[in-house]
Write a structure and sequence with these properties.
The complex is a heterodimer. Chain A is of the alpha/beta class. Chain A has one domain: Rossmann fold, CATH 3.40.50. Chain A has eight helices and eight strands. Chain A has a seven-stranded parallel beta sheet, with helices on both faces. The longest helix of chain A is centred in the N-terminal third of the chain and has 16 residues. The relative contact order of chain A is 0.18. By secondary structure, chain B is of the alpha+beta class. In chain B, helix 2 links the parallel strand 1 and strand 2. The radius of gyration of chain B is 18 Å and the shape is elongated. Classes of the chains: A alpha/beta, B alpha+beta. The interface between A and B is medium-sized, with 31 and 34 residues.
Chain lengths: 217, 114
């Protein structure tokens, strides 16, 4: 006998994500789900962003890491609340793990939570965390074919940051081919060319994210 | 390896339904995944088979259908299916498209014996 189910396999994650989203909306807190390959520069981007914006906004960080707390150690000096989620081998965060750690923050006193997802371009893009939006970070040293290889992330991201732009001359990264592919996957998403370590193009990012925080309510 | 988490959630739902329907044996699981989910069927199958060993679903056949990506073009209002991952309307060239299929992770039904 056949029993009809017709149900989304990821319903449990989706429902919890909707709860998280509703709570953050009620508390008027923005949550950014940061997704990239390992080594693209998520932690460095966060370091620079905290340095630049922590006096203006109340920021918290959720660090998704497979085993260590090394990323969190790098961010500690900035005096913002940080919670680490060790996925113990898991290649992505999910909404249940986010929901569990949110009580560690005083949401009434926050403007924005940056979630540094596990470095991976596939799995994190399939699991809604309850975020306000996804940010995709890609770097010139990874190659220019990422948008077309990982369309789900690039299609869903609200903003794309192209990091390590200072190193482009040492790579075979073809910027125009990257832009054509990105335009084919997502023609409307803003793209910012930056170098976190050489401080290139960072002011446009600070302005963009500040505007997102200011206009959230 | 998002296959692992998706398989875990699937198995949870399958056993819950089997229990409420008093199934003694699950013979088939019918699922549909959109192409955008980027499931590797062989990996998904081996994760599933490993997880149901020694259960009432140990001999269940996994019927996995991959759904193609379909778009509604907002400019020419036509619905199209794409094979490659170029998100451009083949009819009018616009990239202002709304995805109407391709992101599914659906468990359609299970088959079994009481």
């Amino acid at each position: 006998m056949e029993i009809k189910i017709r149900k989304n396999v990821l319903d449990r994650n989706k429902n919890k994500a909707n709860e998280v989203r509703a709570l953050l909306k009620e508390k008027n807190v923005l949550m950014v789900n940061m997704i990239s390959s390992p080594g693209a520069g998520k932690t460095t981007l966060l370091e620079k962003t905290l340095e630049n914006l922590k006096d203006r906004f109340k920021i918290a960080v959720i660090e998704g890491d497979i085993t260590t707390d090394r990323d969190a150690q790098r961010l500690k000096g900035h005096g913002v609340p940080i919670v680490v989620i060790n996925t113990e081998g898991g290649c992505h965060l999910d909404s249940h793990s986010i929901s569990k750690v949110l009580p560690e923050f005083n949401l009434d006193k926050l403007d924005i939570i940056f979630v540094e997802n596990v470095g991976n371009l596939v799995c994190p893009s399939h699991f809604d965390l309850g975020e306000s939006f996804k940010l995709a970070l890609v770097s010139t040293t990874e190659g220019d074919d990422k948008p077309i290889k990982y369309p789900m992330l690039f299609r869903e991201a609200k903003v794309i940051l192209l990091n390590k732009i200072d190193l482009i001359e040492y790579t075979n990264f073809n910027k125009s081919s990257f832009k054509v592919d990105l335009n084919n996957v997502n023609g409307k998403v803003p793209l910012m060319e930056i170098s976190c370590t050489k401080n290139i193009g960072m002011s446009q990012w600070y302005t963009w994210i500040s505007n997102q925080i200011i206009s959230k309510s | 390896m998002h296959e692992l988490k998706i398989a875990e959630e699937l198995i949870g739902i399958v056993f819950q339904v089997a229990e409420s329907e008093n199934l003694k044996k699950i013979t088939k699981v019918n699922i549909q995944f959109g192409k955008m989910i980027m499931i590797v069927p062989d990996i998904f199958r081996s994760v599933f088979e490993g997880a149901v060993k020694g259960t009432i679903a140990k001999k269940a056949k996994l019927n996995l259908e991959i759904l193609p990506i379909k778009f509604m073009c907002k400019k020419c209002k036509e619905e199209t299916e794409i094979d490659d991952l170029l998100f451009v309307c083949p009819l009018c060239g616009s990239n202002d498209l709304e995805m109407i299929q391709g992101r599914e992770t659906i468990v359609e039904s299970i088959e079994g014996e009481k």
